[in-house]
Structure formats: C-alpha cells, structure tokens
Automatic annotation (TrEMBL):
It comes from the Bacteria. Residues 9-22 have a biased composition (Basic and acidic residues). GO terms for biological process: phenylacetate catabolic process. Residues 1-22 are annotated as: Disordered. This is 1,2-phenylacetyl-CoA epoxidase subunit A. The lineage of its organism: Bacteria, Bacillati, Actinomycetota, Actinomycetes, Micrococcales. Pfam families: PaaA_PaaC. Keywords: Oxidoreductase. Signal peptide: none annotated. The gene is paaA. InterPro entries: Aromatic_CoA_ox/epox, Ferritin-like, Ferritin-like_SF, PaaA, PaaA_PaaC.
Length: 336
C-alpha cells in the first residue's frame, strides 16, 4: 500500500473548491470508476471514508478478542491451528484497512488513540461474550457470513485502496465462514450435549449478527450519501435480507433452528420474513453499554501499552538504519 500523502502533498488541503478536481471526481463517480488517493475529493467524501474504513479496521482488531479467548482451549491441535490462523487473518485485515485509511491522510496513531479512548466505534457484534466452544462456530458461520454479505459489495466501492483491500479480505472471510459452519455441523451431529451447545450458541448470536448490518434504512443517516458516492452499494436492510435468505437453508443443513418465531417464507416477496430486532439493545451496545464493551476496550488498551516497547524498538531500529544509510551515501559521495 502506498504511504499516505503528507498534508502538503494533498491537493484538497486548500479549503478553496477545486472546480476541475470536483468535475473529475463527479465524472469518476458517474462512470462508476475508482477514486485514488492523489485525486481531488470532497472533504465529506474523505471524512465518510475515514469514518467507515477506520471503524472497519477497529472491528477486525477488536474482533480478534472473542476468538483469541479460545486459542488455548480449542478442543484439538487441529482446531487450535485453524483458530490461530483465523485470528491472525483478522489482524491482517485490520492492517490492510488501517493502511487504506492512512491513504486518506489520517494517521495510524490518531486512529489508535480514538479507539482506545472509546471515541471511535467498532462493530457492535464484538461486544458479546464467547462462553462456549460452539461460539467459535457461530462467529465463523454467522459473523463472518454477515461480514461477507456486507463486504462483497464493498469490493466495488469507489475508493480504490478500500475496494482493493476488500478483495483479499472477502476471500479469507469466505474460508472463515466455512470453518465456522463445519464446527457447528460437527457439534450438531455429535452427542446430545454437543448439539445443545451448538443450538444455545446460535440462539445467542443470531440477532446480534443481523444487527451488524446497521440500523434500519429509515434510521440510517449515512446510507443515502454513501450510496450516491458508490461507497455502499446496497442499503442496510437489503443486505440484512440477503443474509437471512442465505442462512435459513444453511441452518436446515446444520440441523439447527434460528431463534425467530416470525421467520417464514413470503411467497409474494420471494424472501424470508423475519421478526423485529431489539434496536434498544443495539443502541446500548453502541453507547458502550453492551455485555463486553468494557472488557474489549480494556484489553485493547493493555495490549497497546504492553506493546509500547516494541514500537519504540522498531522506531529506534529504523532510525539506526536511516542514519547508517545516510552515512554510507555520504562516504560514497566523498569517495567519488
Ligand atoms: N456496529 O448510517 P449508518 C467483521 C453506526 S468486520 C457499530 O447505517 P453506515 C470481520 C454507524 O457507524 C465487521 N456501529 O452507518 C470479522 C453510524 O455511526 P457514525 C465490521 C454501527 O456507515 C469477523 C451509525 O451507526 N464491518 O465482522 C453498526 O452507512 C469475525 C448509523 O449507521 C464493517 O465495518 C454496527 N453494527 O453503515 C472479524 C463493514 N452499524 O459513524 C473478526 C464496513 C451502524 O455516524 C471475527 N462498514 N453503526 O457515528 C459498513 O458497511 C457500514 O459502515 C455499516 C454502517 C453497514 C456498518
């Protein structure tokens, strides 16, 4: 990923509107083409992307915690290796996304500050606890499944670095979803206790997974503009519906029930109807009052503080290499 342009290199820093830049931006959006970091872009477009991409990056990083909890307790060496690889993938996703956000002019330090101070949002879903092994299955099947539904269209987002990062992320999420499905299938077809564990876990994760798509369209302040800019391609409700339609037949294969008495096929609409979600719960989680918000943020803060020596050592090493390179090039000039 190219390093972020410094503010003096960026064309948009002058608050004066750049009419040619604006015309070019409008042209790119109308032609459904990519906007790149060096292109002029409206400040609101840049801000929207910084908001969404950084929240997305934070979600991947915080999202490592619920599963990280189970690495030492996975039921076999094979499961442990798979889970470790998956959690590592999420770290990679966070890094691609932070890099994509950096191309918009925001620093990594700023984003980290906003996350650990509690100012920045991250996905509501990661504020739920993971008390059983079956939760690793539910996260893979439902959370990664919802992430794929939401993120495949983002591979066509108008901002180049974000769209390109999403391509690889989606490939990996698709593997994650299958490993979650396989964990649940194994449990569901196992002993009575294992089947019950799988069902109990799905009961807890179903509604929070549906809420990952964001508030209903009528209460989504950002959707219309983001869709006009080709950042979002589908509305929150459309993607939620797509997800429900996808998981109902999958739940049948799993031999598990989705905990919604209102879930039924609607012939006329050609979709499954589903029950009302608890948007109060969603709002509480977004305000930091979900079941695991405090634990997640505290853990992230501790990791950041605990990693200070690594960052200092890396900076000292980079500085030493820079000084050595400078010295070597000065010696070369002198020798010439
Ligand atoms: N959680 O106007 P809208 C993953 C906020 S990655 C928290 O509809 P927008 C991988 C929203 O920010 C999961 N906040 O907003 C993985 C806004 O607040 P703001 C993350 C939410 O942006 C798997 C306000 O509500 N994925 O799972 C949520 O147009 C397993 C109003 O909402 C992404 O970030 C929520 N669920 O649409 C990792 C995908 N929903 O910022 C580990 C990219 C809404 O104005 C293990 N993001 N809000 O203060 C998006 O597609 C969009 O940003 C939405 C929200 C759809 C999330």
């Amino acid at each position: 990923m190219a390093p972020a342009a410094t503010p003096t290199q960026r064309k948009d820093v002058d608050p004066v509107e750049d009419p040619a830049g604006r015309a070019r931006f409008d042209e790119l959006i109308t032609a459904d083409q990519r906007v790149e970091p060096t292109d002029w872009m409206p400040d609101a477009y840049r801000k929207t992307l910084v908001r969404q991409v950084s929240q997305h990056a934070h979600s991947e990083i915080i999202g490592m915690q619920p599963e990280g909890n189970w690495i030492t307790r996975a039921p076999s060496l094979k499961r442990k290796a798979i889970l470790m690889a998956k959690v590592q993938d999420e770290a990679g996703h966070g890094l691609y996304l932070y890099s994509a956000a950096q191309t918009l002019g925001v620093t990594r330090d700023r984003m980290t500050e906003d996350l650990i101070s509690g100012k920045a949002k991250y996905s509501s879903i990661f504020n739920y606890p993971t008390p059983t092994w079956a939760d690793m299955g539910s996260i893979g099947w439902l959370v990664d499944g919802a992430a794929i539904c939401n993120q495949v269209p983002l591979c066509r987002a108008s901002y180049g670095p974000y769209a390109r990062a999403m391509v690889r992320i989606c490939k990996e999420e698709s593997f994650h979803q299958r490993q979650g499905f396989e964990i649940l299938l194994h449990l569901s077809r196992g002993t009575k206790e294992q089947h019950e564990m799988a069902q109990e876990s799905v009961n807890r994760w179903y509604a929070p997974a549906l809420m990952m798509f964001g508030p209903p369209d009528a209460d989504s302040p950002n959707s219309a503009q983001s869709m006009a800019w080709n950042i979002k391609r589908f509305s929150n409700d459309d993607l939620r519906q797509r997800f429900v339609d996808m998981i109902v037949p999958q739940a049948e294969v799993l031999g598990l029930t989705l905990p919604d008495p209102d879930l039924k096929w609607n012939e006329e609409r050609g979709h499954y109807d589903y029950g009302e979600l608890d948007w109060n719960e969603f709002s509480e989680v977004l305000k930091g009052r979900g079941p695991a918000n405090a634990i997640r943020l505290e853990r992230r803060r501790q990791a950041h503080e605990g990693g200070a020596w690594v960052r200092e050592a890396a900076a000292a090493y980079a500085e030493r290499r820079r000084a050595m390179a400078e010295k070597a090039s000065a010696e070369k000039v002198q020798a010439a």
